[in-house]
Design goal:
The protein has 2 domains: 2-102, 2-Layer Sandwich (Alpha-Beta Plaits), CATH 3.30.70.580; 105-237, Alpha-Beta Plaits (2-Layer Sandwich). It has helices at residues 26-38, 73-80, 133-141, 192-204, 210-219; strands spanning 2-9, 45-46, 55-64, 85-93, 105-113, 125-126, 145-148, 163-173, 178-185, 234-240. The chain is an alpha+beta fold. Strands 1, 2, 3, 4, 5, 6, 7, 8, 9 and 10 form a 10-stranded mixed β-sheet that branches. Helix content is 21%, strand content 28%.
């Protein structure tokens, strides 16, 4: 039987979401907790990967189990896992459902602040005041559509294509000091959102015009874009799936 698990984590405490040698990861931490409770190794397949310091407000993974899961599995996992990981739902799905390949869209948000805040320094990137959000939104609009985003992809990554379909991209002002950038696409490349945000910062600071930002997209070269923004402000916010993959079983 296959299950989807929905969870969140604070990336500050981990060297990324994916298991790696000699470093703490979200995947390893969760798999160890599940193996302890279910008394058998239970590999997780994440919907995607996040880099060190990046957070997820909503991440999904799938796993298989030969037996029906205990009704209190969510509670037991949350009791065992560190405070930086929270399990929300465990749902029975179709046998061939895949957390990564069946996702139809993903949404990221990047949060910034212009003030020093001891309660938000791990989840917002502090920037200097004076960003031109109107110019940044004109540039962000140019990201929309199906196009090649090689200029915002980490080099030397093993991907078959750098084409993505960006469905929305815009900045929202929360108040005088705080704002966030929202971007939704069918898929994202390694380091793509942070590279986009870092380059949009250059637009907001007057170093680039929206027209020059468009030229960077067309250049299809990482060297043409700006520096990647700090990881701490980035959240995976949402992942969408077709309703047909969710079998009519109650949440565990």
């Amino acid at each position: 039987m296959r299950y989807f698990i929905r969870f969140a984590y604070l990336g500050t405490d981990f060297h990324g979401s994916q298991t790696q040698p000699n470093a703490s990861s979200v995947q390893q931490t969760m798999e160890e907790a599940m193996a302890t409770i279910l008394r058998t190794p239970t590999p997780l397949t994440f919907a995607g990967r996040t880099d060190a310091g990046v957070h997820a407000r909503c991440m999904w993974a799938h796993f298989d189990a030969e037996q029906a899961l205990p009704d209190n599995l969510t509670h037991r996992l949350n009791a065992l896992l560190p405070e930086s990981i929270a399990i929300y739902d465990i749902v029975r799905v179709c046998a061939d459902a895949h957390a990564r390949f069946d996702a139809t869209s993903r949404t990221y948000r990047y949060y910034i602040t212009t003030r020093k805040d001891p309660f938000a320094y791990r989840t917002r990137t502090r920037v200097a005041p004076g960003l031109d959000f109107e110019a940044m939104n004109r540039a962000a609009e140019l990201l929309r559509g199906r196009q090649d985003f090689a200029s915002f992809c980490r080099i030397h990554t093993d991907v078959k294509t750098t084409i993505c379909d960006v469905r929305e991209a815009y900045w929202t002002r929360e108040n005088e000091d705080e704002a966030y950038f929202t971007i939704t696409a069918d898929r994202f490349l390694r380091n793509m959102v942070r590279a986009v945000v870092g380059t949009l910062f250059d637009v907001g600071r007057g170093k680039l015009s929206p027209e020059q930002f468009l030229a960077i997209i067309h250049a299809q070269s990482r060297a043409s874009a700006g520096q990647s923004a700090d990881a701490r402000g980035l959240f995976l916010e949402q992942i969408q799936y077709p309703a047909t993959i969710f079998a009519p079983f109650s949440t565990k």
